[in-house]
Amino acid sequence: xxxxxxxxxxxxxxxxxxxxxxxxxxxxxxxxxxxxxxxxxxxxxxxxxxxxxxxxxxxxxxxxxxxxxxxxxxxxxxxxxxxxxxxxxxxxxxxxxxxxxxxxxxxxxxxxxxxxxxxxxxxxxxxxxxxxxxxxxxxxxxxxxxxxxxxxxxxxxxxxxxxxxxxxxxxxxxxxxxxxxxxxxxxxxxxxxxxxxxxxxxxxxxxxxxxxxxxxxxxxxxxxxxxxxxxxxxxxxxxxxxxxxxxxxxxxxxxxxxxxxxxxxxxxxxxxxxxxxxxxxxxxxxxxxxxxxxxxxxxxxxxxxxxxxxxxxxxxxxxxxxxxxxxxxxxxxxxxxxxxxxxxxxxxxxxxxxxxxxxxxxxxxxxxxxxxxxxxxxxxxxxxxxxxxxxxxxxxxxxxxxxxxxxxxxxxxxxxxxxxxxxxxxxxxxxxxxxxxxxxxxxxxxxxxxxxxxxxxxxxxxxxxxxxxxxxxxxxxxxxxxxxxxxxxxxxxxxxxxxxxxxxxxxxxxxxxxxxxxxxxxxxxxxxxxxxxxxxxxxxxxxxxxxxxxxxxxxxxxxxxxxxxxxxxxxxxxxxxxxxxxxxxxxxxxxxxxxxxxxxxxxxxxxxxxxxxxxxxxxxxxxxxxxxxxxxxxxxxxxxxxxxxxxxxxxxxxxxxxxxxxxxxxxxxxxxxxxxxxxxxxxxxxxxxxxxxxxxxxxxxxxxxxxxxxxxxxxxxxxxxxxxxxxxxxxxxxxxxxxxxxxxxxxxxxxxxxxxxxxxxxxxxxxxxxxxxxxxxxxxxxxxxxxxxxxxxxxxxxxxxxxxxxxxxxxxxxxxxxxxxxxxxxxxxxxxxxxxxxxxxxxxxxxxxxxxxxxxxxxxxxxxxxxxxxxxxxxxxxxxxxxxxxxxxxxxxxxxxxxxxxxxxxxxxxxxxxxxxxxxxxx
Length: 923
Hints:
By secondary structure, the protein is an alpha+beta fold. The chain starts with 8 loop residues before the first strand and ends with a helix. This is Oxidoreductase.
């Protein structure tokens, strides 16, 4: 499986280094329709109804797919022998780092080269802005965090590397100086979100973030953990007005009117590891003669990784500064957010630069992944809610969140925002005030991870809602139904959801399910040995970031074969199959080749961008968008929930254009229909079935015959597209077929017949307004979960015996993937609720001693393997776009389990995970 196909397209980065990226491709060993085309196996399906997993064959047959699979001998044109790198990290962040002591390494385990912070300074490398902080801790300073790298050890032989790895684990080589205590660093973010609804449902808000903008005092002051308080109202500039409304809301809650139920609760969630199958790994070679750095990586954000590498080396000394960086992107054995903007590629590149001429591999084992990999944020939350006792309507809500961001900022500010703006979940509450602060600590860096802050806040919210129902003597589902945010209602930030709202149907499904209807009888099954309980929870999870970009390219050959390129990454999300199925709806058959992570395949578009898409003003956007090649962002990281919605969108729009201006004119010619015939305009009435194009009253046309005719006519046979979404897709018009053709795109290139791609200038462009950056979320999908648990009285062990999850995700592109994500999300929810935890500091993963002997994830024995029912609601309309769903399926599992434990024991747990010892103490 040697990569033999490299379709490089290049551009010059701001650093002046020529960047190129490619998708690793294996050599084809047989006829095209019998070979794996990485990631998709050539599809033998003749219609979109036969939806197999085109991304699964190589995995099932053991092909080399992941970055960790490859060695130098696998790479065409590379030297055959692989060297190895070892990243040394400190397990102390309270003393001066005084240097390395490698005396434990004998001659057989000595590194060829030791790279320190002094070496990085000597050659002039730079940490990219996102990774601000010392890449290697300098001697004489206190490390920023536990697990901070202090040195790179480079070995020319595997045996020396392997022996050193073992010895240094037994005897850490870190020398310590004077005790300083942990470093104090500023907060990563501090924000306040306040909304006061108008006096009636249709009246405008009195105050909201959408109206006034997001506000921040700049920092919060400590008031004793776990909750921090904002600055006085007179400080903080624009902060003052929102804070006045916020304090009024809190004062009203504290007043405790007799007709109002007020609950004030604290909740704590833990740090956990993403625990993806494949620890981070990669391969690099710096060809100093050709001044080219080549890398093999598995990341969720290919464009960001490439640009970060260029920044790292863009001002380095001439001897180590490459003129070209070629990056090959492989599959990932899991991502879950932990490989979104990971610093791993920076260390791999440094290893290659300091051992020029030798391919070198950096690959974490599980100890190293625990010590250095990105973690989930631990949260401490205080939540207050005021509820009308007569109606059960929640009318005021306040919350304070503190997130432990660990040693580097990473995505802490973003997670703080998402968790805060999602704090009221699926509910319509007219007065809301939420503060959030993300703090620096000496813990391992926290960042993006599946659930992205909503997992934590939903656990606190949905257990609180259950307690409200119990306090009012009301059915838990009835209470939720009375408080639902309905279509057209406004979220915490003051904007509506702009997609279908399916929570009423989800509640109906939950209420009618046997697990809920029979919960009282089930509780009566309690015995001397076992307690039984049932719990429910519902949530919504945003998908999209408010600045999402997608690239898609679709080509049809004269035999009707379809080839797709997209920039989304395969990380267990089935993106190859999803994009193939979405394109098949327009072009009549499954793709014969799908190639993902291909940011190199769109050079003809000539895209340029500038600045931060989240910070751009309307005036700036209006000015730069006059350039027909300008887009707000070129390519986005792939995340757990945007694959189907974002990752397939550009390819779907490209396929629609190929159909309309290529396949449809060819079909009209085959049918003999002229321009004056009314049927000329019925392209949206036609449909594909079993590889045939069908229009009522006309003979079906074989897809390959239509494609052949398109080539013979010189009709459009390929389209290359870019799309951008800021809670709505940008829309542009392009000159096609004598029309100004409007599409949910902002850049387009097309080809006719066998010709090259030609970019089309847009004749009109409408980017979503810059003010949409104030929206907290607009795209959302929903899920509800019921669980039944059994608790062993003697051991305190909680076991989920039965479960039901119902979700909605718009158009389902690949049912098997949706089911798999729901099952995997359920397992992760069980682990988070009952099993997984990482201590934050010296006893936690930063000490380098954690592995799966100590960290327990959910296993088959912890799951209802044969009693987990997953139901997916059909789309509200056949043409409803796909929604992101891979995060939402995990989130309600956690509070449902907590609510079931309360149902069984009468005790409410306010911290995760709930361990057998916790349960025994409660009993």
